[in-house]
Amino acid sequence: MTLEQFFKEVPRAALAFSGGTDSALLLWAAKTYGCDVRAYYVNTVFQPAFELADAQKLAKELEVPMTVVEADVLAVPEASANGPRRCYYCKKALFTTLWKRAAEDGYTVLLDGTNASDDAGDRPGVQALRELEVRSPLRECGITKDQVRQMSKEAGLFTWDKPAYACLATRVPTGTAITRKTLEKVERGEDALFQLGFTDFRVRLMGDAARIQLPEAQMERAVQLRDTIAKALEVDFSAVLLDLKGR
């Protein structure tokens, strides 16, 4: 099945829209193939501000209506406790909220951007999507991450080469409770690295310290800028460490 065929069978749908590469292609395809689609961005402390900005930018470019749904994910005990199945409980809560809002707007189909490269067996969030009967057109059509990027490039979407960006909660070690203050510290740290021109990195929490993971190609530059990086991050962290293994 192609995306065009999918949207002929599903002419009206709500889309959980993150502003990332996968859901961006899905939004473009829905619009291109005549689906009456509305994008829903769920806004939580787990998402950095730039994700919302990217989502708003693309929805505007594609002339697709977008609704921002506010959600207090830290009010979900199993999510804030950050156990090994945090992603399941988080996804279950957020998509339950999205379903409710989409249903209020008259939608009976909710889509998400899971692609065929995503390992369902390794992603507890996928279990939540199945339980809530959320459909994943990219996965159903057998479209891999590489194909998503290629199709996005051909479609002229600015998200085609956007690095994958897991939610901020993944920066906190499993078993360590997640707080708003912690997430804000991590986001400020990552914003600082973005401003210095680094890409596709992570600032992970290690107690009160920050452990920076960078692609190997950016490691040398990080060492050259070590004083600048340390000064920027030491405002929030007791120490700033560079992971030499890289990403």
What is the subunit organization of this protein? single chain
Strand order of the largest sheet: 3-2-1-4
Task: Give the termini separation.
Answer: 34 Å
The description of the largest β-sheet is:
4 strands, parallel
- Label the structural class: alpha/beta
Low-confidence stretches: none
Provide the gyration radius in Å. Answer: 19 Å
Helices and strands, in order, run as HEHEHEHHEHHHHEEHHE
Which strand-content bin applies to the residues? Answer: 5-15%
Mean pLDDT: 94
Gross morphology: globular
Number of helices: 11
Helix content: 40-55%
Q: Care to count the β-strands?
A: 7
Overview of this protein structure:
It is a single chain. The protein is α/β, with parallel strands linked by helices and 247 residues long. Helix content is 44%, strand content 13%. Strands 3-2-1-4 form a 4-stranded parallel sheet. The protein has a 3-stranded mixed sheet with strand order 5-6-7, with helices on one face. β1, α2 and β2 form a beta-alpha-beta unit. α2 runs parallel beside α3, α2 packs across α8 and α5 runs parallel beside α6. The chain is globular. The chain starts with a helix and ends in a 5-residue tail after the last strand.
Main traits of this protein?
globular; four-stranded parallel beta sheet; 247 residues; 13% strand
Give a short overview.
This protein is α/β, with parallel strands linked by helices.
